[in-house]
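Deliverable D2.4 — example input (C-alpha cells):
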C-alpha cells in the first residue's frame, strides 16, 4: 500500500505552536490516525492501516524546518542509520516508521544502553558527514534504540553550520557516568533537571567531568564515595 493513499487524510491534521521552545499541540486528528511523537516544530503521526509509514507534520510557520529536513534526508539517501525518506506533502514529510525506544525513555525505563549503540551513532555521524552534511542537535530523544541497532531521527539541523557539541558531551557523559546508573530507572524530573542545568552551563570551557561530578553529588548525596572517575 502506497503512502500516497492517505495524503488527503494527513492534510486534515492540524497542529499549532505554543512557544519557541514548547512542544506543538495537536488540534485535530482524523479517525485511525495516531500521534506518536511531539516536537517543538512538528508532530509525527501513523495510520493504523499503513504501519510502515510515519508522517511528520510541521506547524504553520515552520516551513523552513520542513525544507531543511527534506534536503537532509535526500542527501542521506539509502542507509542503515536513518529513516527511509519516501516523499512529502504540502506540510509534511513521509518516512519509514522506526519502532524502538529513544535513549531518553531508556533512562526512564531502566533499559540498558550498550557501548555498541554509542559506536553506531558515531558511525551514523561519520556517514552523514561523508554525504556533505553537518550532524548536530543529536540528543537523547533523537536516538532510537532498536533490536538490531540504532536509528537517528530529526535531521533538519544537519544542513546548518557550526558544532553544538551535544553528541560529544553525551558520549563523554556516557563514558564517565553511565556505569553508575546503568539498568536503573531515572525519574523524569531528574533528567529534566539535568537538561536545564546543562542548557545554562554549557559553553566555552564547559567540562562534562566537572558538570557530571557536581550533579552526582547533588542528586546522590551520601554516595560520593562510589564516584571514582
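Example output (designed residues):
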Amino acid at each position: 500500500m502506497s503512502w500516497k493513499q492517505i495524503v488527503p487524510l494527513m492534510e486534515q491534521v492540524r497542529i499549532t505552536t505554543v512557544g519557541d521552545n514548547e512542544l506543538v499541540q495537536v488540534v485535530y486528528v482524523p479517525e485511525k490516525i495516531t500521534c506518536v511523537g511531539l516536537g517543538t516544530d512538528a508532530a509525527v503521526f501513523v495510520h493504523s492501516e499503513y504501519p510502515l509509514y510515519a508522517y511528520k507534520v510541521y506547524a504553520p510557520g515552520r516551513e523552513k524546518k520542513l525544507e531543511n529536513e527534506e534536503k537532509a534526508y535526500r542527501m542521506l539517501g539509502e542507509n542503515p542509520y536513518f529513516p527511509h525518506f519516501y516523499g512529502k506533502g504540502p506540510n509534511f514529510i513521509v518516512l519509514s516508521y522506526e519502532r524502538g525506544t529513544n535513549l531518553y525513555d531508556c533512562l526512564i525505563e531502566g533499559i540498558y544502553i550498550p557501548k555498541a549503540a554509542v559506536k553506531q551513532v558515531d558511525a551514523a555521524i561519520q556517514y552523514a558527514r561523508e554525504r556533505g552534511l553537518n550532524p548536530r542537535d543529536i540528543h537523547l530523544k533523537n536516538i532510537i534504540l532498536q533490536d538490531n541497532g540504532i536509528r537517528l531521527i530529526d535531521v533538519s539541523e544537519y544542513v546548518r553550520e557550526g558544532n553544538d557539541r551535544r553528541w560529544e558531551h553525551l558520549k563523554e557523559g556516557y563514558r564517565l557516568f553511565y556505569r553508575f546508573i546503568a539498568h536503573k530507572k531515572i525519574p523524569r524530573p531528574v533528567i529534566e533537571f539535568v537538561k536545564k542545568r546543562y542548557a545554562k552551563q554549557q559553553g566555552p570551557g564547559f567540562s562534562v567531568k566537572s558538570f557530571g561530578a557536581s550533579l552526582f553529588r547533588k542528586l546522590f548525596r551520601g554516595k560520593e564515595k562510589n564516584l571514582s572517575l
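The chain is about 35% helix and 20% strand.
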